[in-house]
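Predict the 3D structure for this chain.
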Amino acid sequence: MLELWHATHSTCSQKVRICLAEKRLPWNSHFVDLRRFQHLEPEFLALNPAAMVPVLKDGGRVIRESLVINEYLDDAYPEPALRPRSALERARMREWTLYIAEEPTWAVKVPSFQNNIRPEVAARYTDSEIEKLAQKMPNRETAARWVKAVKEGFSGAEIAASLERLGRTLDRMEQALADGPWLAGEEYSLADVDMAPFVHRIASLGAGEMIEARARVTGWYSRMRSREAFRAAMDWRPS
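Done. Predicted structure below.
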C-alpha cells in the first residue's frame, strides 16, 4: 500500500492528498509534526535528506517533491487521469505545475509562518532552542525563516510583499481561466490540484477579498471546494 509522510497544513502535503483522493487510492499516513520538528529526526531524514514533506513510498520506491509525486501517481495509477488528453493542454498544465512550485509555493511562506506557525512555535521554544534546531536544517533560507518566525516575526511590509506576489498569481489565474473552467483549459488536471491549496491558504489567511476581486478565480475556487477530494484533503487531521 502507498505510504505518505506529510503534515496537516503543509500546502505541498495537501496537494498530494488531493491527488490521492481524486484517484481514490488507499494510503497509510505517517504524520510529521513540523511544529515539533519531527522532519529533522534521523528516521525522516533517511527518507528525505532535504527535511521536506511530503514523501511518498510505493513498495520499496521513495518519491520526493510534491510536483513529482503527483506526476508519479498519475503515471503509476492512470485512472482517473489527471492530465489532459490534448498535447496543448498538457503543456499548459506543466507550465502551471512548474510555476506553482517556483512562485506561490514560496510566496505563501511568510504570511503562513506569521499567522499559523509563529504563535505556537514561539510559545514553545526559546530563541536559543530554535537557533540550535535551525542548525540542523539543510536549507539555510528555510532555517532563517524558522528563526525569524520565532524570534521577531515578519514585518507588515514583508507580509504585504508576499501578498502582492500571491496577487500576481491570482491575476495569472484570472487570465488563464478566460479559456476554460480549469487552469489548463477544458479539463480538470494536476494544474488545478497543485494550485488549490495556495488559493485556499489565501482565503484562510483572511485575504479572501483577493479571490473575490477576480470573478473567474472565484468561480474556480467554488468548483474546487465542491469536489469531494478537495474537502477530504483539506479536512484531514491526524487521528
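Strands lie at 2-6, 27-31, 55-58, 61-64.
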